[in-house]
Amino acid sequence: MPKRKLRGQTQLEQATGRAEMKTRSRTDLMDRLAQRPPRSEEMDADQKWSDVWPAARTFAASVVPLPVRMGSRPNTEKRAPFKKEGNLELVKIPNFLHLTPAAIQQHCEAIKKFCTPFPPELLNTPELAKTELPISVDYNTYVHQGTNIRDIRSRVVTMKVQVAALKFSEHALEKFARLAANRYDETTGILTIITDRCHTRKQNIDYAYYLLTVLYHEALKVESWEKLSARADALKVDFDGSTTKSRLVEIIEKTHVDEKSMESFGKMWNEYRNTEETPEKTREYARRAKEILGLRKAEV
Amino acid sequence: MLRVTIARSIRAMSSAAPASAPDSDASVRKIGRALETYLKHSQQHVAMMEKHRAEFETGKRHLAKMMGLEVHELDQEAIDRAIQYLFPSGLTDPHARPVMRPPDEILPKFQRFTFDEEGRPEGSRFFTLSPKIYGLMSEIGVKTQSVMKFYDEHVGSRSVNRKDLEPANLSGSQWITADKMKKKLSEKFSPELYAQIIIAFEHLASLPGSAIEQNFLMEFREPMTASTGSKLFGPAIPEVQICAETNRRFAEVTTHCKDTRAVVKVTDAGKGKFNVDGLELHDFRHLQSREILLAPMIISKTLGRFDVFATTSSISASLPEAPNREPIQRSGGMSALPRAVRHGAALCIAALHPEATEPLRLAGLLTLDPRKKERSKVNQPGARAKWIWKRR
Amino acid sequence: MKPCAELASHVARRVAVRRLGGVHRHFCTEAKAESSLSLLPDAGTLYEMEMPVAKQLNMRTHLPSSLSKQMGTLGEVVTLVREPIVEVASCMRAVNKTFPTLRLVLWGPFGTGKTVTLNQAVHHAYNNNWAIINLRSAMELTRRVKEIEMSSFVSGRINDPSNAVAFLQNFKQQNQHIWKLLGELLTERDYEWSKSEKTLKDKPITEIIEMGISAPFLASDCVGALFRELRRHATADKLEVLVAIDDANSLWGKTLVKRADRTYAPPSDLTLVVHFRRMIQNDWMNGCVLMVADKKEVADARDELGVSRYTPLELFGEEGFEFIEPFLPIETTNYTESESNAIYNYYVKKNWLATEAARTEEGRKQLMHLSAFNPFYYERLCAFN
């Protein structure tokens, strides 16, 4: 049973004079307006808008004191867009009336007491972040027009680690590079772990830290079979001890090219073999090879 | 509607007035009522506009306060920006988005008539129902007379320019349409009247010596290609910039073809080098690709003058589905990718070498190709293809 | 555009071939002077290979197909002397009996003239009376093997009689200019090919070749023996040898030869491949090994859009690269403007460019740019204009 009186009950009471007869004008809008004009008309221009519209809310024509119009109509010269009263189009679109610059500032002021100041050292020298804060975690939060606050992309977490901060030994770094594979960028020295396998962001962040921990400890381990590693197993090729060098030594004895060119050739060779091959690097190789084979004279 | 009623009552008045005006008050009252209606509407409109203006002014003050601005800082541009911020609408039609504009701009105009003190309309053509069009017609008549007179006086004499004695030069243009004429004169008229006007214009234009009225005639003519216009479909011709380091001119533009987006930068005073995603021209092994890439240079006859640097990407693959997976590089093949680059290069060449703009436009190289792959439909193997129907 | 007067200088001119001592040369023991090699024309000029010589050197099959077709149409073999062949010639001049074999690798993008340079070098070797070991494509040894035979000499090796015979025939044809000299070179030891066939010690090495051609099942082993003898005689300064191998990186590529257990045999199991690899090794003197690194070994022919790398390490692979080191990479490039003009003038003179539009200045420019200065595309473009 509803709390209010039933209509029959009220009618009975009114007929007997116990209840007051209340007449309301339903049909004439002007009459009703005469009773109470829209709130927006009574507003003072100096009022605090965030008090009127403190939180997100659907557009209400009687509250918003702006003469906005909306709607596409044919022959715009003769017909203006519809006014705000009773305009569903304005109700349908989202509004930021609660997020005016003044309101945002007010919010910021309010939550300031919970915040700590940004480290001034980092403001002065942003490079400090590399050494002092070696781990950075990135994620995105998504806002929708609709009521949905969830987005599947918001679970993805990207963790970046400055590997230099882990202070690996040479052996450990090599093992680390093998374990991390393409997640470790050697040129920048940054490890990038992207985790998206769990459902929530929190879980993914935890998982990323777990992976980092495992990588670190596995890299530090020295297994018994690692002693067996041969020259062919190395991540990089070295000029010293290569067949190329031994062959070149033989040739150099005959051509009497000085030792210095051997050194510079070795340096170039190491770079050529251990980085991505480009035509420009091959040209450099040709220049050095010509030098070391003593062919420069022959060209004349 | 209003105008028709007034006109009707006035017509009644114009026939009845001379006879009954001195002795009877009835016809005067009749006129008075028509005018009264008009005046009432006019006053109502003024009051309404006044109300809207006041509303707009207070709204403006409210808006300024909301956005934390001073009222005098809030010009129309600032209002538009504020409305766009407060009511972010994703509707593609700009007319459908929320607006806040001064009522004088946005509300329909109220057509006013001019009357003298006694309530009579100014200008005797008021009673023809179409005063403007008849005015234009009589103007044409007067001009025709003066042209004929001018020709008769000056034919054979050397005091005037020979060119003035020729018919007006109307090549490459046409008479404006009835709709445009109506808009121009802001008056409605029948098709017959329009035909009469055109006949009168044609007669005037055919007269020897009508060259002196060239400007008057051109007011009512439009260029033949006015409908297409000189505006390009797709991205506009970019601005020429100057590289600070090399001091060479360059232009940059972003365009697309099918699913391939291309950012093209063309540098002047180059060697005719191409760099499309790190590929040179000889890496495009199909002649078709090379032909497409070089088409703007061949048409503008600037082979070997411009260096082209372009990077391409796939539009649909720009949002990776899975973050751990490398996004698939699917920018176009041997035709679409060069075509995207070609459009960008043609636009840049048009900017750097403006003489080539017209040939490039005529060759269709400055126009964007908007065609895209049609989406495949649910329950169908493709966009149009259907599964093979089989009787069970 | 060059003025007409200069056009004459671009007309193909015959190279005066200075035939040296010929047969008697191997008797002179002192170190060969550098100037003893016949000179190439200057870079940027066209030169013509005489038709009988081209026939002897089997240019019709060794040149790229489009060029050999053009050779048939125009009735002459005219090529442009470009930077790489000049460099190859200068390296060949440096070859001597004290210096280990010089290894050169021609590398460059598609269609820039790697094969043409190789054939020019073969012609240059012919002009200087070198012995020529020329393989049309190493890919034929690994991918186009029609019949196979298990080797009786080394177990597990796979012989390829048809390719071996074809090679020996080609060797015989290409070395007719020094056939007499080869006849005077003697074998080091007895070769027992089978129970019945033998080549005794101190017999001319041409006998080995004849033996291989007549008995296909011995041809693969004959190739090995021939190479061995040639290396020995070259080291003893009896003659100079040019080893020219096209698509040499296929010697370390993949094969289409199946073993008995239906797995693909690695290239090191193929007898001919092993012999050619042995020839590439630089443990002998007085020779020059010219190799071409070609992307056709690694590229997918059906991938129309992919651009694969054409650099030596990429194509030879780690193993092959370490095998051929130390070597000298020689790059072939696209035409420069003057080079393409030389070719254009030649085509105009030959009426190969017949249409009016192609003969205008604008046409010349368009041909140049539409071909992207690439020699292969340039030839193709001119062929249908």
TrEMBL record, chain A:
One of this protein's Pfam families, by short name? MRP-S28
Small ribosomal subunit protein mS35 mitochondrial conserved domain mapped to chain residues: 131-221
**GO MF terms on file?**
structural constituent of ribosome
Q: Name one GO cellular component term.
A: mitochondrial small ribosomal subunit
Tell me the Gene Ontology biological-process terms attached to this UniProt entry. Answer: mitochondrial translation
Annotated region (Disordered) at 1-47
Compositionally biased intervals (Basic and acidic residues): 19-47
PANTHER family in the record, alphabetically? MITOCHONDRIAL 28S RIBOSOMAL PROTEIN S28, SMALL RIBOSOMAL SUBUNIT PROTEIN MS35
Any idea what this protein is called?
MRP-S28 domain-containing protein
UniProtKB/TrEMBL annotation, chain B:
GO annotation (BP), single: translation
Q: Which GO terms describe its cellular component?
A: mitochondrial small ribosomal subunit
Pfam family, any one: Ribosomal_S9
List, alphabetically, the InterPro entries matched. Ribosomal_Su5_D2-typ_SF (IPR020568), Ribosomal_uS9 (IPR000754), Ribsml_uS5_D2-typ_fold_subgr (IPR014721)
Q: Which GO terms describe its molecular function?
A: RNA binding; structural constituent of ribosome
Record keywords? Ribonucleoprotein, Ribosomal protein
UniProt keyword annotation of Coiled coil present: no
Q: Which family would the database say this protein is a member of?
A: Belongs to the universal ribosomal protein uS9 family.
PANTHER family the record matches: RIBOSOMAL PROTEIN S9 (PTHR21569), SMALL RIBOSOMAL SUBUNIT PROTEIN US9M (PTHR21569:SF1)
Descriptive protein name: Uncharacterized protein
Q: What does the organism's lineage look like at the top?
A: Eukaryota, Metazoa, Ecdysozoa, Nematoda, Chromadorea
UniProtKB/TrEMBL annotation, chain C:
Q: Which domain of life is it from?
A: Eukaryota
- List, alphabetically, the InterPro entries matched: P-loop_NTPase, Ribosomal_mS29, Ribosomal_mS29_met
List the Pfam families: DAP3
Name the Gene Ontology molecular function terms of this record.
structural constituent of ribosome
Where is the protein situated, by its record's location annotation? Mitochondrion
Q: Which GO terms describe its biological process?
A: apoptotic process
Q: Which UniProt keywords apply?
A: Mitochondrion, Ribonucleoprotein, Ribosomal protein, Transit peptide
**One Gene Ontology cellular component:** mitochondrial small ribosomal subunit
| Name of the molecule in the record | Small ribosomal subunit protein mS29
Provenance organism: Caenorhabditis japonica
